[in-house]
Design a protein that fits this description.
By secondary structure, this protein is α/β, with parallel strands linked by helices. It is built from six helices and seven strands, in the order E-E-E-E-H-H-H-E-E-E-H-H-H. 44% of the residues lie in helices and 20% in strands. A hairpin with a 5-residue loop joins strand 3 (26-29) and strand 4. The chain is globular.
Length: 187
């Protein structure tokens, strides 16, 4: 549902998604400068609008950032783009895994390239690693962070302090790379 909210003389148009599964309110600004708000059933629309008012500076900053980006960096792709880039993505991921796993030495089972809408990567409990084909469009260090993040899940299947220490072993500037990755949200 498309909605508009005027805050401090700024009109923000956003898509409101109501979710039974969501545990908390989520505001995302995507690379096409669109804003999506996910509303759990425990949060009222009035409270959500107050929250948006408090976050207006951040929302406007993100919208401005994405509007300045080269349209080629906006990561929207369909099945044809996925098929065209899947092999290149697998080659890149395998090179990054070889480099980073030299530090960790973690065993894993399978590496798969996917066309996901909301995830850059994942690691299953069975030790399978999955990556979005759009990893090929990331800066090199952000791609390495993504691979290190998923490899670290082979040892720590959570986001505890121990997990982040593992990531830091391979990517000392992981905080900066994590920020870079979060700015390139998928659609």
């Amino acid at each position: 549902m498309l909605r508009k909210l005027i805050i401090n003389n700024h009109e923000i148009t956003y898509t409101l998604r109501k979710s039974r599964r969501a545990k908390r309110l989520k505001v995302a600004v995507f690379c096409d400068a669109s804003v999506v708000v996910t509303l759990p059933r425990t949060v009222t629309v009035a409270w959500m609008e107050e929250f948006l008012k408090r976050k207006v500076n951040w929302i406007l900053k993100e919208i401005k950032y994405f509007k300045k980006l080269d349209p080629k960096l906006r990561l929207r792709g369909g099945v044809a783009e996925y098929r065209q880039n899947r092999a290149e993505a697998l080659t890149l991921v395998m090179k990054k895994i070889t480099k980073i796993n030299a530090i960790y030495q973690f065993p894993f089972r399978r590496v798969t390239i996917k066309n996901q809408k909301t995830r850059w990567g994942s690691c299953s409990l069975q030790g399978n690693l999955n990556f979005n084909y759009k990893i090929i469009f990331l800066p090199d260090r952000a791609a390495e962070y993504l691979v290190a993040h998923e490899l670290a899940h082979l040892e720590e299947y959570n986001h505890s302090k121990d997990f982040w220490r593992l990531v830091e072993r391979a990517i000392p500037d992981y905080r900066e790379q994590r920020t870079e990755l979060s700015r390139r949200m998928l659609m």
